[in-house]
Amino acid sequence: MKKIAYLGAFTILFSACENQEKKESDMAMTYPETKKVDTVDTYFGTEVPDPYRWLEDDRSAETEAWVKAENEVTQAYLSKIPFKDAIKEKLEKIWNYEKIGAPFKEGDYTYYYKNDGLQNQYVIYRYKTDADPSTAEVFLDPNTFSEDGTVSLGGLSFSDNGKLAAYSISEGGSDWRKVLVMDAETKEITEDTLVDIKFSGISWRENDGFYYSSYDKPEGSELSAKTDQHKVYYHKLNTPQKSDELIFGGTPEQKHRYIGAGTTEDNKYLILSASNATSGNKLFIKDLTKPNVDFVAIVDNEDTNTSVIENVGSKLYIVTDKDAPNKKIVTVDASNPTPENWVDFIPETENVLSPSTGGGYFFTEYMVDAVSQIKQYDYDGKLVREVELPGIGSAGGFGAKKDEKELYYSFTNYTTPGSIYKYDIASGASELFRKPAINFNPENYESKQVFYTSKDGTKVPMIITFKKGLELNGKNPTILYGYGGFNISLTPSFSITNAIWMEMGGVYAVPNLRGGGEYGKEWHDAGTKMQKQNVFDDFIAAAEYLIAENYTSSDYLAIRGGSNGGLLVGATMTQRPDLMKVALPAVGVMDMLRYHTFTAGAGWAYDYGTSEDSKEMFEYIKGYSPVHNVKAGVSYLATLVTTGDHDDRVVPAHSFKFAAELQEKQAGDAPVLIRIETDAGHGAGTPVSKQIEQTADIFAFTLYNMGFKVLPEETKTEIKG
Q1: pLDDT class for 572, splitting at 50, 70, 90?
Q2: Full-model pTM
Q3: Has residue 568 got a pLDDT over 90?
Q4: Interatomic CA distance for residues 493 and 490, integer angstroms
């Protein structure tokens, strides 16, 4: 299949006297007054008040005023933390190095993404493939899209001959996109901008046009109104968007929440995936070489996850978890592609498969306890070799066009900044292509994988990373980060922000919770619907392990997660507020009774179920929904909720309502604040300047509420504990 390039990213010793005053008198909290309304919903005979329903209206002046008032309180608190600016300076210093992505070839040029250091957005450069790379020129600079960097590049896709490019842009972090078409040689825009495109790739059909996906523009707020009928269109170049051909999704029989279409590399077939949830899909194929033919179903139900990865003429290579929870590759002829005709090509193994193709070979990435193993197969299914990787970590990018002789892949782990390697496809030889010149020495740090026992006896892996020589005294500030959902795997990767945390003496721990994809479909399903509590239990057990092993203690432990991970933090802190000191829920799904009523949220029901499914499901979800489990009279931990006012993936009302509940019912002295980024969405495309500011705020809040009043360098000499 054609690839689409996306932009899709402390141990100086901490010590603090145990009797150190935790709260300055000038930091006493007075929260904005948040009005309450008498809205009540009834679920299966049970009345559930929703006093902050009005905060769901993202277009109202009242909500805008509330956001402004909350941000003023939050920034006033953060501005008084004496070492916040010093953390920001550290972040800017380590962030300021050249970052270069893996090269890729289109037409006569080789392209790559590069950020000089502190640029808000990556810039795309290119050079003639047969020329010296030093002759590279700027091809597209997203930093010119807006002065503040809040307009970002979403995706970039080239026509078959490389002479045209289509790219999408996001404004203020929204999932809604605009698409522009440009002449790749002259870099001039060639036609009117396409608008109102969402959850879409850009897949060219030769050089004449491309396929994309979108929804009808919803009534009401485009940032929060429900969208549930996705459609695929074909845009023929130099024609108005209103003339674009509707390919799929225009009838009740074709109604699905998510539909994506892409052409095979030889342009022989159009492959279309249709689904109503984030797991499971129908799969269709259309022969583009024959006029007036319709789609043929390969899989006509959503019981499996299935996709076409490659074809040789009419022979299809299909990746599926049908009868193979860890996935396998099968072959079938396009003339009769249904499952009863499938033949195993690369069988299922005990490890989860994520394959790609390049240079006439298959590259199978297997996750072995959340780290990468890569094997190379030929088109007859014969194992050619296991690819020797630079170390233990995460490898990605083993993809290239069929006629390429080399490809580029990335390698990283928690202590190794992402480096690019050139791989000779025929010989299997790897050579370092680019290594970032970052002011960070991996030799000073170590990662340790442990297996701990969750509440029900399940063994769960966790990687703990810290500076060598760490003293296990229970006083190390620790961030426990988790996700646990949607078949997402947390594999080792380097983060600039985590580097600063560890440089200052902090511990960074990442457990591979159930609900993720690290051990296949069964591991994922074990953290869904009526088993969702397993995810929270796994996270709680990870915290208890870190405390029992003296990496940290409750006074020095923070929990962090975003999106579904924000739900994880919200549920954990309401179930066990005694277990940790700081909670950092970001863009979280906090109102579990209503999540499915916003934007494309109904598609998350595979993982969550909905409050409308049954009385049993309603009661189960209500039992952990963060908004509905904040209780009066409880001393909650210091909490900094973060969200963006343009988040149309997990609408900010989730975070607004959770913060309002916490502020109303907090019985203790710990601050419960919300930081609302303006002109920002769910995270993708966030300008570097905003990332640095937000991280400095989060780290300062975390350390201050663990009892630190100066940065560790000063603490080391001034406070002996």
Answers
A1: very high
A2: 0.90
A3: yes
A4: 9
Q: For residue range 3-34, what is the model confidence (pLDDT) as tens digits?
A: 333 223 222 222 333 333 333 444 568 999 99
Q: Are 40 and 47 in contact (CB under 8 A)?
A: yes
Q: CB of 325 within 8 A of CB of 522?
A: yes
Which among 246, 338, 343, 266 is positioned nearest to 296, based on CA atoms? 338
Strands in 394-490 per DSSP E: 394-396, 406-413, 416-424, 430-434, 445-453, 459-467, 478-481
Q: Are 233 and 245 in contact (CB under 8 A)?
A: yes
79 carries an active-site annotation: no
Virtual CA dihedral for 522, 528, 531, 534, nearest 10 degrees? 80
Cβ atoms of residues 278 and 649 within 8 Å:
no
The number of CA neighbours under 13 Å toward the Cβ of 213 is 23
Cα end-to-end distance, the chain, whole Å: 60
C-alpha distance from residue 720 to each of 19, 140, 702 (Å): 12, 53, 21
For 1, 466, 521, 688, the CA distances from 326, given in Å and listed in that order, are 21, 32, 6, 37
Whole-number pLDDT of residue 7:
29
Average pLDDT estimate for 533-540? 98
- State the pLDDT at residue 647: 64
Q: Where are the extended beta strands (E) located within 199-264? A: 203-205, 209-215, 230-236, 245-248, 258-263
Name the strand (E) or helix (H) holding 547.
helix 533-548
Q: What is the pLDDT of residue 712?
A: 60
In single-letter form, the type of residue at position 239 comes to T
Which residues, at least 6 apart from 507, have a Cβ–Cβ distance to it below 8 Å?
A: 464, 465, 466, 470, 476, 477, 478, 479, 546, 551, 552
Distance (Å, whole) CA 576 – CA 585 = 15
List, in order, residues 6 or more apart from 290 with CB less than 8 Å away: none
Give, for 469, the enclosing helix (H) or strand (E): none
Q: Which of 256, 524, 628, 682 is catalytic?
A: 682
Q: CA 524, CA 541: separation in Å to the nearest integer?
A: 18
Q: What average pLDDT does this structure show over 336-360?
A: 97
- Angle made by CA atoms 374, 417, 469, in degrees to the nearest 5: 105
Q: Taking Cα atoms as reference points, which of 160, 162, 337, 167 lies closest to residue 265?
A: 160
The amino acid sitting at 474 is: G
Cβ-based neighbour number of residue 84 at 10 Å: 20
Rounded to whole angstroms, the maximal C-alpha distance in the chain is 80
- pLDDT reported for residue 701: 98
In whole angstroms, what is the distance from residue 219 CA to residue 317 CA?
A: 41
DSSP labels for 210-222?
A: EEEEEEPPPSS-T
Q: Which residue, 331, 337, 373, is CA-closest to 352? A: 373
Find the catalytic residue in 563, 611, 625, 655.
563
From residue 91, how far is each of 79, 508, 688 by CA, in Å? 17, 17, 11
User: Which residue in 393, 485, 490 sits closest to 447, CA to CA?
Assistant: 393
Cα–Cα dist 107/491, whole Å? 34
Catalytic site includes residue 682: yes
DSSP 351-370: SEEEEEEETTEEEEEEEETT
The residue count of the chain comes to 721
